[in-house]
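seq:
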Amino acid sequence: MTAHAKKYFYEHGLPFPQDLKKEVLEPLIRDLNREPSILVLDGTSGTGKTSLAVHLADCVNEMNGQLIVDLTPQNNIQLGHGGVDLTEMSEKASEAGFIVFIFDEADFEKKGTMTKYNRNLHKFFREYRQLKILIILVIQSVSWLDNDLHDGGLIKGLIHLHDPTKNYTSYSVYDLENLSYLLDRMERLGRHKKRKAYTVVHGYKRGQFLDLSPERREQLRLLSTSFKKKTRKAIVKNLKADKT
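struct:
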């Protein structure tokens, strides 16, 4: 491994600690034999949620004997956003042999905006349980997801991102038990103090992940710009439809 590459990978070859692969990703992949699953990534803006999602999807691809996620707009089929049809894109990914798909909702900063996407998630998992696929869901706060998704057993865990630095970002992993305590504390704290819950209810595992390479960061930036343009068009279209 070159000195330059070490900035973006640990000595074991991954951009995050090995236990994140062995104790989180590998069990999730084994569970896909039974049903699709959701792994939630949340955190405030600028914590690198989508970057970690790409890292995780790269790792799953490698475990499945495939190349890393293609982030070029013309070839991307593993990363979707709020302005696209989750079912359509995840079907394309599954048909191409991928078992992981990233659904990035982090740009939607109001809980009300998530109502539509909660419905989309319900519809997807209700109609497409035969797809053996892991959805990595990127959002600002896990509290935005409605209770049915939690109660239905679709969400398998949470990775909360916090305290970004120039060289790495910290994360905390919550299993279902930790997550239940976290959501309960959020509800008791109320709408404007929910983020304090992360400092009270801690995950069972912590670590730091490294950034994407400059080339892939630029690819992700261009892809995100493309997503935002499509999302704005979709919002305008929906507003016009509501007025008719």
